[in-house]
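Would you kindly consider the sequence and fold I have copied below?
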Amino acid sequence: MAQLRVTDFFAQNKKGPAAGSLSAKRRKVQADGAPEPLEAGRPEKKKEQQQQEEETGPGLLEPPRTPLGSSCPQPSLPSSSRKRRRPEPEAELTPVSAQGRRRLGAKGTARKTLVMPAEEKGEAEMVSKEKLAELSGRLAKIRALAQKVTLPASSSEADGDIKSRLKRARLLESKISKRKEAEKEKVRNLPQLQLGESNPEPTAETSAKAPAFQRFHNLAQDVPPGLALPYKYKVLAEMFRSMDTIVGMLFNRSETVTFAKVKQGIQDMMRRQFEERNLGQIKAVYPASYIMRQEKNIPTFGTPGQKRSDYQLTIEPVLEAGEKLSASHLMERRKIFGRNLVNIVKRHHKAFLASLNPPMVVPEDKLTRWHPRFSVDDVPDIVPAEVPQPPQVDKITTAQEVLAKARSLMTPKMEKALANLALRTAETSPSVPESPRPPPPAGTPSSLKGVSQSLLERVRAKEVQKLQALMVRNPQQERRLDMLSRLPEMARVLRNVFVAEKKQALPMEVACQRMMASYRSLMTFGETEKHLHLLSELLPDWVSVLPIRQETYIKLDKSVDLNVVTERLAARAKEEERL
């Protein structure tokens, strides 16, 4: 198959439609696979090449040839990959000059330049001018905005803003001061409660509200109700236990116990801050626990911020001569401290009962639980006792201090005159006001208007009696009352079991299993057996427990009316509640 040359197509474009039709015929014949006639085609081809050389010059349209001896074969170009370039109708083509053709040589190609019309050139210039005008306008806007941002606000606006902020700050400050004064008034109006002969009345800390886990600590306990302590009292008891442990270790090895050592040890054990205030609270609760003194010349062992010549607070446990602080002593002291904390809460509880309407009086030795409306976690904090402080040495440094000390040096006549004056002022001064009493009970609410006063008094007396019995009830009696409250329903279940089994007597094991499967709440085998024994104790004519040989049987009389049985059980429960 003969190979096509690039010059064939170039000549067709130059020659016109005749040459183009002839080359098209050749391509068609080659595509069909027929052999090309050599004798007819070659003379015409030579004539065409001569004409092209005359028009374009020698060597311009010669095809590129592969040099002899080259190992690379000449690639065959498919006809489909060649595309004709058609000149755009709007552009004008200018022929290449002869000089340019000579410069191109054999390897060059004929290049064509596009010449734009004058109208299109004018339109392009107009579009470029419009774009430049638009861009310049945008740039001016951006510069104006940047200038506005960078320019500072006017002095009048800034002064007005500062004045408004200052006014708002003063208003907030006045509101805060009013609120603090109101809180102080509330603290002053709290009822005074005496905790002992030497301790003043404790006041609750109202500056910061305690978190919920402290305020409702008593309600979140899963232990049976009893004389529970507030959260802050439990923390203080834990501090005393840690302090007793550290003091015992240092005291048993004959080492001087200082507050700095105890403080560091308690903070490491509890991960809480321990200050002199907590030490004063421990002393207020248990005064006979430690002896505290201020001493100096105690080795500090490199403690930062302390010198050997400084005064230090020393702590010594109260023990008999020669005794060590053993484990039995620690347990006993811990029990005494907990008992003292309970006694403090009992005093607050007693004051709460006296403020009720009608007031209640419950002996402290018979009290087993607090009043339902007594908020245990709201009990005021313990006021710390005085802790020994280092002596203050007066050092006169100014003339004013010298004059003040000279005034204190008075003659005996002056002292006598001042004493007489103090006696006369004491006689004429008004009497000391008595301690404030608890507020009187509130009057009858509007919802109870029209109800006879005697009926209200009877209802209140019954309520007081019921609460008083609840507060002095022991745990064993409480458990028995719980069992009595379950007996009516258990009696109904037991009768149904006997009716279903159609027997007069059942083994205790079978009866307990049937009861456990039928009762509404989960009960163990032992608890069910206790309830059945209690039924036989209260109603021996209806249920009886019969031990026969190695087994125990339970017998029930199905002829007895069940309503009568439940009424008798309810009456018995009410009787025991009144006790």
Remarks:
- The two ends are 131 Å apart (CA to CA).
- Residues 212-378 form one domain.
- Residues 64 and 107 are 8 Å apart (CA to CA).
- The chain has a mean pLDDT of 75.
